[in-house]
From TrEMBL:
Gene3D superfamilies for this protein: 2.20.25.10
Domain of life assignment: Bacteria
Keyword Transport: no
Keyword Nuclease among UniProt keywords: no
Name the record gives this protein: Replication restart DNA helicase PriA
Transmembrane segments: 373-392
Organism of derivation: Gordonia liuliyuniae
Length: 395
């Protein structure tokens, strides 16, 4: 019987490389194509995972299992030329498409409940089962700028609540009802959208330098010393280097209070990964980088330039009659910054209090209690009257 020819020797196959870390993160998320959303179920028990600020990982509150977030070491934070971005906005290639004020309803893939995304909200929790849900159609839209980076949340809810309570309790004249924020208000973690600007400027200026001097004038009883200013022309060229200037790109927030949370450690930002947002609210931008630069960043840069000019002029007083600034570098980065937001509706008006999600610093607005203020005024008047009576009695 004829034997079949022997099989050729098999060449050893090289071991397969593990998938990239970015792919591992994508595999961990459950993509819901029909709803254009993603969730993060636990691989052990199926419960939703959420990013833990304290542990810096994805954690399951049900079974306690944790999943590390491993970023691709070759990934870098990218910055963009603002002029190129402005051209893209002018051509309509990117901008604010598909968000402005609309509502988007999705079906939760865990419980079947319906969740509504309003406006620029891109990540939330299902109100029925608390499953973190992220919209993919906004962040992946070719008509919008892609996220470049994120500074992950580091202040957990217990620390944030402690900071809020300490801040509220120190507001002596806040209404008693306002201090019951646990039942009156909404307290949640949120990532807000920011642009971080870099600029190298060269400014030529003309102005005057003023030096003070004193002279003695008059005679006799009218003899006195007067301070005068001696002015002389001044001109020159100054250069400014601005790095990581953060500007909020969301609307509906108290921008002045939020700015008081600065400085932000922009240099610690890492390439954006949606895992950092799991379990927390997140908003995409409401304003484009051109508008934010013109209205917010440019005035702050001009203020820094003016300070540099005055320092260059020197003297006791400075006058700036003209200046001309050119930009050798002007670029931006689109990123998310974390904070905790308390919103309390009191007497028909919303009051917002913000906690820096990295340092725990608190800034916000509070109402004033008319009753407490009136009581304090009456108490002060009583003290004044008693003191006046005692003084009058001694005299």
């Amino acid at each position: 019987m004829t034997q079949p020819p022997p099989l050729p020797p098999q060449e050893p196959q090289p071991p397969q490389a593990p998938p990239p870390r970015a792919q591992q993160a994508a595999d961990r998320a459950r993509q819901h194509v029909t709803e254009q959303t993603r969730t993060y179920p636990c691989g052990s028990c199926g419960a939703p995972l959420a990013f833990s600020p304290e542990r810096q990982d994805l954690s399951c509150r049900s079974c306690g299992r944790a999943y590390p977030i491993e970023l691709d070491p070759s990934a870098t934070v990218v910055k963009h030329d603002l002029q190129t971005a402005m051209a893209s906005i002018a051509s309509g290639a990117v901008g604010l498409a598909s968000v402005g004020g609309d509502e988007h309803e999705v079906v939760c893939q865990s419980c079947g409940g319906r969740t509504v995304f309003n406006g620029s909200l891109t990540a939330t929790r299902c109100p029925y089962c608390a499953t973190p849900i992220q919209r993919d159609d906004i962040q992946d839209s070719p008509e919008r700028f892609a996220l470049d980076a994120i500074v992950p949340l580091r202040v957990g809810e217990p620390q944030a609540r402690e900071a809020i309570e300490k801040w509220i309790n120190s507001r002596w004249f806040a209404p008693r009802e306002f201090k019951k924020y646990r039942t009156l208000g909404s307290f949640t973690s949120v990532y807000l959208s920011y642009y971080s600007y870099d600029a190298d400027t060269t400014t030529g200026y003309h102005g005057q330098r003023g030096d003070t001097y004193t002279v003695t004038v008059g005679s006799g009883d009218n003899r006195r010393t007067e301070t005068r200013i001696r002015w002389r022309p001044a001109s020159g060229v100054v250069r400014n280097t601005i790095r990581d200037l953060p500007e909020l790109s969301n609307t509906g927030m108290d921008g002045g209070r939020i700015r008081e949370l600065e400085p932000w450690p922009i240099q610690t930002a890492v390439p954006y990964s949606p895992e950092f947002v799991a379990g927390h609210l997140s908003r995409t931008y409401d304003r484009d980088p051109e508008d934010v630069f013109a209205r917010e960043a440019r005035p702050r840069i001009d203020s820094q330039i003016e300070t540099t000019i005055r320092r260059d002029i020197g003297g006791d007083h400075q006058r700036i009659s003209s200046k001309n600034t050119t930009y050798g570098l002007l670029q931006f980065m689109y990123l998310l910054l974390p904070m905790w937001l308390l919103t309390v509706n009191y007497d028909g008006k919303p009051f917002q209090v913000f906690v820096n999600g990295l340092t725990g610093e608190v800034q916000g607005e509070r109402p004033w209690s008319k009753v407490k203020i009136a009581a304090a005024v009456i108490a002060a008047l009583i003290v004044i009257c008693v003191v006046a009576y005692l003084i009058w009695g001694r005299q």
